[in-house]
Amino acid sequence: MTAPLTPPPPPHEQSSQHSWQPPAAGHAAPAPHDAVWHGTYGQDGPGMKTEVREAAVVTVAVALAGALLGVLWWWLAPHVPLVADVVDKSWIVYLSDSEGEQAIGVDGTFTLLALGFGVVSALAVFLWRRRGSVPLVVALGVGGLLGSLLAWKVGVWLGPTQDVIAHAKAVGKGVVFSAPLKMRAKGALLAWPLAALVVHLGLMALFGPRDPESYPEPGAKDPYGAPLR
Questions:
Q1: 213 pLDDT exceeds 60?
Q2: CA of 205: how far to CAs of 24, 138, 192, 208, in Å?
Q3: Contact by Cβ (8 Å): 181, 159
Q4: What Å distances lie between residue 5 and 9, 12, 15, 179, 196, CA to CA?
Q5: Is 195 exposed, middle or buried, given 0-12, 13-18 or 19+ CB atoms closer than 10 A?
Q6: What average pLDDT score do residues 165-178 get?
Q7: Which of the chain's ends, N or C, has fewer CB atoms near its CB within 10 Å?
Q8: For the chain, how big is the Rg over CA atoms in Å?
């Protein structure tokens, strides 16, 4: 006679090494998607309402800064000299220096000032809110465009009168006077918003917050008991 064989364990039974253990009292069972990762993700940004309010503040502040740009443009832009003459009892106004480049300098001065304002506004917004968001970027672009439009109007308003003939009659025949402040290259209005967007995105890429890297703790296992590497 042979000794009876020990019957194998039922298929549904597992060895004690991999048997499921209930969680200890006071400890909740980890969820499958976050049971093994104990690192912390980056903090969530402010809510959408807060971001919209901050974007509105940025838009208004940047746009109002356009008044200062307009004053600086009027002050620093070169004057275009005009002179008047009377022909057949009609006043004729023409450039005193036909080869001068003052008209180009007017547009160039506005463009350079607008680029500087774009850099400063982007830096100020980044230092105030070191976190990027779509409303904030849109606010910089819209505020810069509105600021450029306001600067254009303020500079023209502060500059010489737009009625050239009346100005010529007031100064007299053959007397040189300044032409009205005009912007011939309307693309200069985009210098501020484009500079602000590029600088802000660059600052966020270089110095913006980073998501912390998460690593599993030594010996951590997934919900199925397999070790993580």
A1: no
A2: 45, 17, 20, 6
A3: yes
A4: 12, 20, 19, 114, 83
A5: buried
A6: 85
A7: N
A8: 35
Residue holding tokens 């002050």? 75
* Weakest-pLDDT range from 20-34, 91-105, 108-122, 163-177: 20-34
**Which residue pairs, CB below 8 angstroms and at least 24 apart, start in 182-186?**
182/103, 182/106, 182/156, 183/106, 183/107, 183/110, 183/152, 184/103, 184/106, 184/107, 185/107, 185/111
Residue 229: CB atoms within 10 A of its CB come to: 5
| DSSP SS3 for 17 | coil
What pLDDT is attached to residue 224? 59
Query: Tokens at residue 194, please?
Result: 């484009």
Which residues, other chains included, contact 164 with Cβ-Cβ below 8 Å and sequence gap of 6+?
82, 93, 179, 180
Spatial separation of the C-alpha atoms in residues 183 and 161, rounded to whole Å: 15
